[in-house]
C-alpha cells in the first residue's frame, strides 16, 4: 500500500522533469535573436489596444458556479458506491435522494435560464 | 519460460534480488525499483506519442484521400523524428508583458498532467505502475491539473485571443467533467471498488456490455476533456488565432501538442481498462504478457474511433457545446446512475447473483433509458420544427404617400 504511494510520489518528480528537460535543452540549442517587433503581442497584425485582462462575459462565471455545486457533491458519491454491498436499503435510498436533489438543482437552473448562452 | 510468461515482474524480482544481494537495505531497494519503474512508465508513455502522431497523421490523410507522410522510412513511419529535430532548433519568442513564470510553467504542467494518468493504468495483471485503492478519484483529480495548465497559458500570454481561449476552456472542460465523473461512478458502483486494476479484475462481463450508456457517456465527455474536434473551441483557429497557445513557439508550443496527442491515447486506454475489460482475455490470468497484448489491441481500437470522430465531425458552436453537456449528457448520466443503483440493490434484495440475469437486467435498463431519451429528443425536435415553421413577424415597409 505504502509502496503504491511511493511510486506516485516518485512519478510526480519524474513527470515534472520529462517535459521540463527538453524545453531547457531546446532553449540552449535554439537561436536567440529578439527584436522589438518580434516580441509584440500577436493580435491579427494590429498593434494591441488597451489592457489584455478585459471584462469577460458573466455567463462563464455562472457555468463555473453550476459546475462547482455538482463537482463538490459528486465526490461524496464515490464512498457510497464503494460501500454499496454493506449498505442497508435506507443507505441506498438516501444516496438516491441525494442524487435526486442534484437533479432538481439542474432542473431549477435550467428553468431559471442559467443554462442558456445569451 | 518464467521470463516469457511475465517478463516485467521477472526482471523486477531479479533486480530486487540482485540489490538485496549487494547488502542494500530492503527499503532502499524498493525505492530504487519504484523509481526505475516510474522512469520506465514515463518514458514509455512519451515514446508512445512519437508513434501515435504518425498513426493519426496517416489516418487523417487516408480519410481525406491524401497519402500522408510517406518519405522517411517505410510508410513514413519515422516522419516524427525530423519534425522533432526541427522543432528543437526553433527560437522561443516570449511576448511583451507576459507573466514569465506562469508562461513557462504552463506547457510543462499540461504534459505532466497527462503522463500522471499512466501511473494507475494496468497493462496486465502484474504490470501496473501503482494499484492505489482510489484510482478513479486519482484520475479525476489529476485530470483537473491539465485544465489548470491551459488556463495558466491563456492568462499569462498577455494576449486577448489567448485569454478568450482560456475562458472557453474553463467553461468546456469544467462542464464536461460533470458527466465524466457521473459516468465513472457507474463502473465504481458495478465493481464496488475504486482501484483501476481491481475494476479490471471485476469485469467478468465487460462493463461496456453491462452498461453501454455509461461507456458512451464517458467516451464523449472525455473527447471534450481532450479538447479536440468536434469540441476544439478552445483553439478554434478561424476565430481565436490558436486560442491559448497563440503566443507559444518552439518546443513549448510542441509540448501542448504532445500533451493533446498523449491525452487522446490515454483516454482510449482508460476507456479500454474501465469498460472494455482492460487486460482481460483468454489466458491473460496465467500469461500476463498476453494481457498486455489484449490491452493494447483494445486501446488501439478505441483510439481509432477517437481519431475518426475528430476527422469526420465539424466544430460545435459554444452554445451547442454547453447545451449538449448540461441539457443532454448530465441529465442522462444522473438518471443512469439512479437506475443502476436501484437495479443493483434490487437484485441483491431478491437474492439473485447469477451473472446472466444481472447482465440482462442492466442491459435492458440501459436500452430503456436510451429509448426514453430518444423519445424526449424527438418530441422537443418536433416542437422546435413547429416553432420555426410558424409565420414570423416581418417588418412591413412604411407606406409612402405618392406625392405629386
Describe the protein in words.
The complex is a heterodimer of chains A (118) and B (404). Chain A is mostly helical and 118 residues long. Chain A has a single domain (2-111), classed as Up-down Bundle (Methane Monooxygenase Hydroxylase, Chain G, domain 1), CATH 1.20.58.1610. Chain A has helices at 2-29, 58-74, 77-82, 89-111. The N and C termini of chain A lie far apart (50 Å). The relative contact order of chain A is 0.06. The model of chain A has no long low-confidence stretch (mean pLDDT 81). Chain B has 404 residues and is mainly α. Chain B folds into 2 domains: 1-84, no CATH class; 90-383, no CATH class. Chain B is 70% helix and 0% strand. Chain B has helices at residues 2-5, 7-21, 26-63, 80-88, 100-117, 135-156, 160-191, 196-202, 207-210, 212-226, 250-275, 288-312, 318-350, 355-389. Chain B starts with a helix and ends in a 15-residue tail after the last helix. The relative contact order of chain B is 0.11. Classes of the chains: A mainly alpha (118), B mainly alpha (404).
User: Would you identify the CATH architecture of chain A?
Assistant: Up-down Bundle
Measured by DSSP, the beta-strand proportion of chain B falls in under 5%
Tell me, what is the CATH class of chain A?
Answer: Mainly Alpha
Q: What is Rg of chain B?
A: 25 Å
Most extensive interface: A-B, 70 and 85 residues
Oligomer class: heterodimer
- Distance from first to last alpha carbon of chain A: 50 Å
Number of helices of chain B: 14
From the spread of the alpha carbons, the general shape of chain A counts as flat
Largest sheet of chain A: none
Q: Any descriptors?
A:
heterodimer, A: 118 residues, mainly alpha, Methane Monooxygenase Hydroxylase, Chain G, domain 1, 63% helix, B: 2 domains, globular
Describe the protein's topology:
The complex is a heterodimer of chains A (118) and B (404).
Chain A: H1 2-29, H2 58-74, H3 77-82, H4 89-111
Chain B: H1 2-5, H2 7-21, H3 26-63, H4 80-88, H5 100-117, H6 135-156, H7 160-191, H8 196-202, H9 207-210, H10 212-226, H11 250-275, H12 288-312, H13 318-350, H14 355-389
